[in-house]
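step: validate -> pass
step: tokenize input -> pass
step: predict -> running
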Amino acid sequence: MGSSYLKGSKSKSKVEEADKFTANVDDDEVARELPEMENAVDSTGELINQQPMYDKMLNSDVSMQLNDMMLTGKVARRSLGPDGKTTGSYDNNPIINSVVYDVDFPYGSSREYSANAIAENMISQADDYGFQTRIMDAIVDSKVDIAVACTKSATFASRKGGHKRIRCTTKGWKLLVKWKNGQSTWVPLKDLKESNPVETAEFAMAKGIADEATFTWWVSYTLKKRYVIICKVQARFRKTTHKYGVELPSSIESAKRLDRMNNNHIWCDALSK
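step: predict -> pass
step: emit ->
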């Protein structure tokens, strides 16, 4: 037992000798000592570059006042002052966040807005569920996907006993809507029929498409009851593609597209969990 103990102690000492650090000495070059550096601060003693790389405000869509119009822009970046530093300090709470951001609008214009102003507009333009609401200005055009839409010849469907019933469908139709904020987007008929039924029915009559199978089953009834409907239906359209200004992906492909557009991989990381 004594001999085995001695062998074990010898092998242990060899391991300790091998683990000892030996400095690499070079006779041709003098070793350089790295000075101890403190955290970088500005002239007021505040830490520099202590704001997070990810900012919840960035890449959000928001409608802001630009001159005499309400336009939808994208929060592109944090604004830089004359000294090259960001103005204000970032906080996850938008009320405390004092950073100033550059909002890019269509046609190349850009303006600076404070985080409080952006957050206030986001909240005021969202409903209780966080979805954006927009006010419609006019319906200007329509288009139909013939491969999906119901044709005039298929307006009625046969039932048992030889009875026929009208097909209640809105598939294949989209309407081009101009919004009060200056934007124009194609909206599915099924959504616009629920949010603005009277305006949609009047457009179908003026456009001469009220006799189409997609419109004939509800347009005439809506126009007869227009005054009752106007009192009950809200004049705002829920934009389900955005929530609190952030565009939501509808598929894996759209999630990848948003990550490429925003130069990050947030949505893909969320899908991989």
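step: describe -> Residues 131-243 form one domain.
step: cleanup -> pass
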